[in-house]
C-alpha cells in the first residue's frame, strides 16, 4: 500500500510536469493523497490537519524571511543596485578568460541576492549574450551560469534554501556558511580550473557592443553609492547580525537610494516593495523587472505544502521503507554516499528544490549526525543536486531564462564536484 501511494504521487508529479501544470496543484493533490492514506490508517481529519500544522509551525519564521527577501529584491531593483552590479561585473569579463569570469560573476551576484532565479535573469542573461558574441558554445556558458547561480543559492545569508535548511535542522546560518565554505573550497577551485581549460578551447572574438547594459544605464542614474545595499549585506554578515535585521538594513538603504538617487516617488517605491519593480521601458523588462513580496508568495506556498507532508509522513510511517534502505546504505558505506543517494532520489521525483530538501531531511533524519553536520549534508546533496535534474524547476527556470539547453547541466562542474569531492574524502560524516 505504501509503495502504491508513493508511486501514485510520482505519477501525479510526472503528469503535471508533462502537461506543464502548476506545481502547487500537484503538491495539493499530493496532500490530499497522503491525507487519504492517513484516513485509511485510522487517523481523524482533525488529527491529520494537526500533523500538517505541526510541520508548518516548525518553519513559520521562514515566511517572514521570505517577505523580507521579496522586499529586498524589489528595493534593489528600484534603486538600481542590481543593474549597477551587473554592469560592473560585465565590464570585468574579457575574452581571454570568459568562462571562469562568467562563473565568478554569477557566483558573486547570486551570493549578494541569494536567489538563483534573480541572478539568472540578470547576470545570467548578460553572460549568455556576451558568450554568444564571443563564439563560446552556449552549452559551456549555460553550465558556467548554472554553477554560478547556485553558488549563492547554497550559501548566501539571504538564500531561501539556506534558510529552509536552518529551519529544518535548528542551526545558525552563519555557522552553516562557514562549514559550506570549507566544504566547497576545493570543488570551487577545481570548477574554476575546469572552466579556464574549457574556455581555452573555444574561440574568442571582441567584446559585444550591445548586451542590454546601455539600456539599463539609461534607465538608472548609476553611482558607486548604489553598492551600499550590497556592502551592508556583507558587513552585517561579517558582524553576524541576525539575518532579518541584516535584510532590513539593506532594504532601508536601497529604498533611500531609490528615492534620492533615482528620484522615485514614494508610492512607486511602496509598489515595488510589495508588487515588484516594473521598468517604464518594456524592452528592459526581462533584465529589470521583478522582486516584491508578492513574488515570494508562490515560494511560501510551496514550502507550506511541502512542509505539511513531513508530519503526515512521520505519523503514518509512509517513508519508513525508503528510510530503512538509506539507513542500510549509510551503515554499509557511510553517511556521505547515503545522503548523495537520498538527495539525488529526492531531486529526481520532487521536481523542485524545496521539496527535495524536505524529502532528503525525512529520509536521513535517523542517521545520528549532529545538527551542523546534518545541515551541511543537506546543502551538499539536495540543494545542489536539484539543479542538475533537467525537469526540476531549479534547473529548467535558469536554463529557460538564459536561453540554455538541457545539455548545459553536463558543464555545471561546481554542482557535481561538491558531492563527488565529499564522496572521495568522506567529509567526516
Automatic annotation (TrEMBL):
Keyword Membrane carried by entry: yes
Bilayer-crossing regions: 61-86, 98-118, 130-152, 158-177, 184-204, 216-238, 299-319, 339-360, 381-399, 405-424
Organism expressing this protein natively: Mesosutterella faecium
Name of the featured protein: Na+/H+ antiporter NhaC family protein
Alphabetically ordered keywords of this record: Antiport, Cell membrane, Membrane, Transmembrane, Transmembrane helix, Transport
Family affiliation: Belongs to the NhaC Na(+)/H(+) (TC 2.A.35) antiporter family.
Places the protein is found: Cell membrane
Membrane-topology annotation of the record: Multi-pass membrane protein
Domain Na+/H+ antiporter NhaC-like C-terminal: 148-402
Highest taxon of the lineage: Bacteria
